[in-house]
Write a structure and sequence with these properties.
This is Large ribosomal subunit protein uL1. One of its GO terms (cellular component) is large ribosomal subunit. The protein is of the alpha/beta class. The protein has 2 domains: 124 residues, 2-Layer Sandwich (Ribulose 1,5 Bisphosphate Carboxylase/Oxygenase); 85 residues, Ribosomal protein L1/L10, domain II (Rossmann fold, 3-Layer(aba) Sandwich), CATH 3.40.50. Strand 3, helix 3 and strand 4 form a beta-alpha-beta unit. Helix 2 crosses helix 8 and helix 3 packs parallel to helix 7.
Amino acid sequence: MPKHGKRYQDATKQVDRTIQYEPLEAVELLKKLANAKFDETVEVAVRLGVDPRHADQQIRGAMVLPHGTGKTRTVLVFAKGDKAKEAEEAGADFVGAEDMVEKIQKEGWLGFEVAIATPDMMGTVGRLGRILGPRGLMPNPKTGTVTFDVAQAVQEVKAGKIEYRVDKAGNIHAPIGKASFDNQKLAENLKALVEQLIRVKPAAAKGQYIKGVTVSTTMGPGIKVNAQKITA
């Protein structure tokens, strides 16, 4: 087990691990403990009552947080003709077709954080599966990154769209803002994410669905949140 520094250990002492905090209390505490020299990202982990080994209990999607994430992500769009022009006008950082595929294949270029593709480009982009897939960069219809409406897709990413996907242990991890956000905005982003996860609950999931919610900053300890109070 890696040893945590004194700052982390001091912060941990201020968190009561035996209770579940009210959402605003949790946000207030994590902001108080965010004392790194940079604007820490606020992250949430949601433990779900699903078995990801079954296809009908897989959860994956994307959403735009009400107040964004506080981070502007670099977007690459695979498109041709009018759709390429549309992507450029919408604010895409890089736009191309076969030339971009070749750049990634031959040069190993990965100077982007989100890739969007028009459906007609997926036959070509598919050649990048082994490179982009393991990095979570492959365009996917489930997250809205394979679409002819490239302008909207780019605008949503720039506005703070996040992707969520259940891991092997049944957890969802996602950023919900920065420590510099005011308390209410962080609480509202948290509420929006949990409500979205409830909306996409698989029919096959039985028993308690939201089993636990924990918030933390990049360098801080986890703080348990009362899930029922989040959506109240």
